[in-house]
Design a protein that fits this description.
5-stranded mixed β-sheet, 25% strand, 10 helices, 9-stranded mixed β-sheet, alpha/beta
């Protein structure tokens, strides 16, 4: 099979994997395409929810006997352990496939080993096909495994001059209904969403995705002194909520976690460790400028999604508060991943440039 054909089928597998976003945590998103011995697609699938069949199982079931002597394209190395489901490496062996093409090898030592098992049974395995694209689609899970914390997206809406609210504090609505709908779709792909107590007291948000995603978002409120009102909408029954308070604060009438105080607020590294222990793989930060600045300063933002309206305010709150930059040499540099119009607005997606690339 040509390199171009490999790329085409792997790109289809990557697109399939994206259907699982928001539903698979703490597992990865994975897509699979199976070809018959003549190179024709006969089965495909993706991992939809934790505890459910993996992508390879869906694809092999669809392919049936046509998988024998065929090729399987998988975005992540087939698992080689028995958890809530059996090892996908063994399923591929039993299906009689001749070749397996893998985009990304598994960094999780508990599940890795599928490539070695397949090769030990005489199956040709090629790895690294469209690895960069597959890693981008599975960035949240890969970050959680490699760094031991959730993948953090900072999302904000602002005018072209970077204002998230007017001088009188009003902010509804800076962006269009189309942009807000797009932001809700992005929310639905996350495991958790975070805001600060300032946002809760000023706007009384519900912090839910509308329409809802595959499973309810965990709503997280940064509230050092335990000031979240019992009647706040973020404490309604629409989704679970976790209040993060300081270790010396009064306990709220809700699920809470105590964190060490640090200058400017709470220990965000400790918070992310707590969320990871609760199975959170992806976190969206939607707090105000102070919360956003704290995450940026700590180097805990993996992706920035900005919705920019073609409007100017000239005064009012900036989207980003103090972020530890005192001189131009300390600027937090980003690289653009995507720029797309959303209604009359612009959605810009960027990520920090690793220090080694600067």
């Amino acid at each position: 099979m040509s390199d171009q054909s490999d790329a085409d089928f792997m790109r289809r597998a990557i697109a399939l994997a994206a259907h699982g976003l928001g539903g698979t945590s703490p597992n990865p998103v994975v897509g699979c395409v199976v070809l018959d011995s003549s190179g024709n697609p006969v089965g495909e699938g993706y991992h939809a929810r934790a505890g459910g069949p993996h992508a390879e199982i869906h694809a092999l079931r669809a392919a049936g006997d046509w998988a024998r002597d065929g090729t399987a394209y998988v975005t992540l190395e087939p698992c080689d352990h028995i958890g809530r489901t059996g090892p996908c490496s063994q399923a591929l062996i039993e299906a009689g496939v001749r070749r397996v093409v893998v985009a990304v090898t598994d960094p999780n030592p508990l599940a890795a080993g599928g490539v070695a098992r397949l090769r030990a049974h005489g199956i040709q395995v090629d790895t690294g096909v469209l690895a960069e694209e597959a890693e981008a689609g599975n960035a949240a899970w890969l970050t959680s495994v490699r760094l031991g914390r959730p993948y953090v997206t900072w999302k904000f809406a602002a005018t072209l001059d970077g204002r998230s609210a007017a001088q009188d504090g009003t902010s509804k609505w800076i962006t269009s209904t189309q942009a807000r709908g797009d932001a809700h779709r992005l929310r639905a792909q996350q495991d958790a969403i975070l805001a600060g107590i300032g946002t809760v007291l000023a706007d009384d948000p519900r912090l839910t995705a509308r329409p809802a995603g595959p499973k309810p978002l965990l709503r997280v409120v940064l509230d050092s002194d335990g000031r979240t009102p019992p009647e706040a909408r973020v404490l309604d029954s629409a989704a679970p909520t976790l209040i993060a308070i300081a270790d010396d604060a009064k306990a709220p009438e809700a699920d809470y976690v105590r964190l060490p105080r640090v200058p400017g607020g709470l220990d965000l590294t400790a918070l992310l460790a707590e969320l990871r222990a609760r199975g959170v793989v992806s976190l969206m930060v939607e707090g105000g400028p102070v919360v956003a600045g704290a995450f940026v300063k700590a180097g805990l933002v993996d992706r920035v999604v900005a919705y920019l309206a073609p409007a100017l305010l000239g005064s009012g709150a900036a989207a980003l508060g103090p972020a530890g930059v005192a001189t131009i040499g300390g600027t937090h540099r980003l690289e653009f991943l995507d720029v797309a119009p959303v209604g009359p607005d612009l959605r810009i997606t960027a990520r920090p440039i690793p220090l080694k690339e600067l």
